[in-house]
Amino acid sequence: MRILLIEDDPQASRYISRGLREAGHVIAVADNGSDGLAMASHEDYDVLVVDRMLPSMDGLSIVESLREQDNHVPVLILSALGDLEDRVSGLRAGGDDYLPKPFAFEELLARVEALGRRSNQGAVTTHLKVSDLEMDVLARKVQRASQSVNLQPREFRLLEYLMRHSGQVVTRTMLLENVWDYHFDPQTNVIDVHVSRLRSKIDRGFEKPLLHTVRGAGYMLREPE
Asked: Of 103, 120, 137, which closes a domain?
């Protein structure tokens, strides 16, 4: 899932971000309310994790603003204010769940993933197919022409993103943000290396390639002509 964490405490932000990434999710981070609202308003996320007390705009105001925009992305509110009245006010502001601090990361992860499942139930395809290339997202299996393709975790995420955007040009920026969770260009050939490895695994030995480089634009996974 793509998750936006809005948390101004650097230590808490690093702790939560690291744990969510290790669980296989793509994380974006904002350290103040205004930036967090802007990111949530202009980009697509599966779940938001929002601290209640933030500089420039508090967490409840972020949620209220999103709901006024008809943005119904699930929101987990984090707060040191854990009394019944505080929890109720958070939920009435538009939050979907409320987790008082301090908390166990295992519980936070379970709540985030539950929100993601609830919002995407029946909406996210878990079996992807492009020509004779097939991916079972839940079982983490890939086959081409019934032959098993063994991928590393990053290669799997790269292929999943390309398959979900099959027939479209996918730019380097799109890959950096959605597969590597970079919001800057690291000035390395990391994408080229991974695309080359992925191409060798899904196209080598087959007559018609599926993964193509679109010169000056990016990459495209498409059905053979």
From this structure: 120
